[in-house]
Task: inverse folding
């Protein structure tokens, strides 16, 4: 508490002097060495996660399709049961965005965009991506990233500040802002690689072919990097081919016994395919540009059916 | 309208994994008779060989090369899609194409959603939607839901250790350390 106050005063007094930011960094480092920065407790984690999730859902709403949301949520919970934090209040949602991405927020929030979901072929792929996001939660990657930042390092004592006090509200708000910012900036590459390694194992534990996540990475590698829907995902993650190669190196030999586990393409196609059809049917009833795009596409498809 | 029916019919077909999707070798690679590293080599493909992917099995893909030879390659040595696949992720993203076919393309979608979106800028300016967070609470959750979801597809949980956590972390940070 006191340390926090002193640092805040120092920080306020310093203006934006870079030299001072450096010394703050050193100070935080020094404290960290003497005594590990206190990690936010479960309550604080939940509060930050809720705020970050609210911001994310402000940027992209939930898909309005109960069946689709239920499917992803049930799958997510089955995966959660295979992890070391099965009792978190996990929450899963499909975002109504054509962007290709997936997100996690502290406390157990996991989101996938419609754009990514519709690029998948089976449940094992979806499981792999959800499990990757869950690994970020399991390892508290976002919280660690928030705390690593010198400015936000001031929040190290978030947990020790009484809920309801003015300091608490201000700090929580700052943490939520920093957490949301991470979506645009991305986590450390190492955190992404770690989430990949854990994701494939969680999928295997849940009884899926663990190569679902590598298969998605291969799809992303094939995707057009110029497509604006992929821009943020490519910016904030290591190259898919690099991730794929690292995974392959670790999975060869170790994951072979599970490679024959189900991919569940049928169940996936039934739920997600139904949704895709409904979406199209809904938009088709509107105006002509859609119909034009529609016939263009079906013409393009013809050679495939021949 | 006929197009429409044709499409619906197509959708009802079980979409087999990757059936006949185009790809090419990223590197020179040996085409194996079976999906094992020590299986017999059918032929050696130079980098950039165009091929059709029949299916994936674990980390391997069954492919047909342009010269007619068939066999297995590691998925890491294949890049899906080729220059000839002008439709982008046509075969792979079938669901995406299905859904998108009703849309007017990128610009139309962006305009329709107005200020909302998941670009870095849009994320920064997002207004919180706490009601949407509450909506998540209403989705099926908990162990019982999860177990029935699993048993409905005969999914069986397995005991599997995490992969090379400490060692890999060390290796990675020396190679791709970035910000650490």
Result:
């Amino acid at each position: 508490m006191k340390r926090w106050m002193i640092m805040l005063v120092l920080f306020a007094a310093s203006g934006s002097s870079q030299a001072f930011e450096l010394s703050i960094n050193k100070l935080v480092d020094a404290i960290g060495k003497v005594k590990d920065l206190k990690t936010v407790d479960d309550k604080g984690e939940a509060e930050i996660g809720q705020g970050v999730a609210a911001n994310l859902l402000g940027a992209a709403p939930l898909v309005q399709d109960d069946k689709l949301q239920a499917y992803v949520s049930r799958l997510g919970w089955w995966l959660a049961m295979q992890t070391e934090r099965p009792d978190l209040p996990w929450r899963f949602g499909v975002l109504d965005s054509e962007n290709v991405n997936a997100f996690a927020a502290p406390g157990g929030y996991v989101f996938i965009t419609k754009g990514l979901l519709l690029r998948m072929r089976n449940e094992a792929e979806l499981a792999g991506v959800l499990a990757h996001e869950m690994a970020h939660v399991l390892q508290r990657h976002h919280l660690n990233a928030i705390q690593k930042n010198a400015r936000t390092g001031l929040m190290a004592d978030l947990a020790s500040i009484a809920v309801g006090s003015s300091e608490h509200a201000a700090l929580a708000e700052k943490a939520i802002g920093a957490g949301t910012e991470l979506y645009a900036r991305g986590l450390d590459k190492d955190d992404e690689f770690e989430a990949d390694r854990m994701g494939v194992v969680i999928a295997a534990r849940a009884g899926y072919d663990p190569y679902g996540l590598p298969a998605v990475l291969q799809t992303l590698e094939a995707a057009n990097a110029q497509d604006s829907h992929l821009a943020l995902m490519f910016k904030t993650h290591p190259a898919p081919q690099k991730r794929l190669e690292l995974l392959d190196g670790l999975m060869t030999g170790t994951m072979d016994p599970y490679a024959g586990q189900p991919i569940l393409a049928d169940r996936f196609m039934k739920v997600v395919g139904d949704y895709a059809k409904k979406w199209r049917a809904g938009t088709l009833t509107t105006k002509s540009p859609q119909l034009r795009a529609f016939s263009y596409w079906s013409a393009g498809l013809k050679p495939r059916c021949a | 309208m006929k197009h429409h029916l044709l499409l619906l019919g197509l959708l009802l077909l079980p979409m087999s994994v990757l059936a006949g999707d185009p790809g090419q070798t990223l590197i020179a690679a040996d085409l194996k008779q079976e999906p094992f590293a020590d299986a017999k080599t059918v032929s050696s493909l130079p980098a950039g060989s165009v091929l059709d992917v029949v299916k994936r099995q674990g980390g391997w893909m069954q492919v047909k090369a342009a010269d007619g030879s068939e066999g297995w390659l590691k998925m890491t040595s294949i890049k899906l899609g080729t220059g000839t696949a002008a439709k982008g992720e046509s075969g792979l993203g079938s669901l995406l194409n299905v859904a998108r076919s009703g849309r007017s393309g990128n610009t139309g979608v962006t305009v329709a959603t107005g200020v909302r979106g998941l670009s870095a800028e849009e994320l920064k300016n997002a207004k919180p939607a706490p009601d949407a967070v509450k909506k998540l609470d209403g989705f099926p959750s908990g162990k019982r839901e999860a177990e029935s979801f699993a048993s409905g597809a005969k999914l069986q949980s397995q005991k599997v250790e995490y992969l090379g956590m400490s060692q890999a972390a060390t290796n990675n940070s020396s190679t791709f350390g970035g910000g650490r």
Confidence is low (pLDDT under 50) at residues 9-18, 83-92, 102-114, 167-180 of chain B.
